Amino acid sequence: MTSEYKVSHFFNNLANLKEISTLEQASFANPWSCESLSAEILNPLNLTSIISSKSATKPEILGYSLTRVISPEAELLRVAVKPEERGQGAAKKILAKLLRKLISLQVEKVFLEVSEKNLPAIALYQNAGFSNINYRPNYYDNGTTGALIFEIVI
């Protein structure tokens, strides 16, 4: 487990695609394919954020986020953290740094959707200041789980 993190943001850079794909597979019941991740990362509207350990030898990628930026709005598409790092503050750190970066890009509102069953993510977003603004029934898990729509004004 890591207590010190570094967050980096970039556009159009596939350098970490392998690590992102591995985290994606470990984090989601219906993960995006490597091809889908690659297409999104190369989308000129996508901001990719990486959180890594602050290791002097070889920093390890611990998590990532993918955000579609169309100022003055953005949509947080994906957030994932290595299972062994969950609950240690990595997701909170990447989200806080991402929101600061989005402010610098003249973003005023950020939206996201999350499964109503994903209680840790819901708590993360609410603690960061997001508000639940809508509900989509039967959105996830082959139509058995609803999606909560969140928004934050930054």
What's the short story on this structure?
The chain is α+β, with helices and mostly antiparallel strands and 154 residues long. The chain has helices at 17-27, 34-42, 90-104, 119-127, and strands spanning 5-10, 46-53, 61-70, 73-81, 109-115, 131-140, 145-153. The protein starts with a strand and ends with a strand.
Work out the helix count: 4
Stated plainly, the CATH topology is called: Aminopeptidase
Q: Per CATH, which architecture? A: 3-Layer(aba) Sandwich
* Share of helical residues: 25-40%
How are the SSEs ordered, and which strands pair?
Blueprint: E1 5-10, H1 17-27, H2 34-42, E2 46-53, E3 61-70, E4 73-81, H3 90-104, E5 109-115, H4 119-127, E6 131-140, E7 145-153
Parallel strand pairs: 4-5
Antiparallel strand pairs: 1-2, 2-3, 3-4, 5-7, 6-7
Helix pairs in contact: 1-2
Explain what the structure shows.
The chain is α+β, with helices and mostly antiparallel strands and 154 residues long. It has one domain: Aminopeptidase, CATH 3.40.630. It has 4 helices and 7 strands; from the N terminus they run E-H-H-E-E-E-H-E-H-E-E. The protein has helices spanning 17-27, 34-42, 90-104, 119-127; strands spanning 5-10, 46-53, 61-70, 73-81, 109-115, 131-140, 145-153. A 7-stranded mixed beta sheet has the order 1-2-3-4-5-7-6, with helices on both faces. Helix 1 packs across helix 2. The longest helix is centred in the middle third of the chain and has 15 residues, at 90-104.
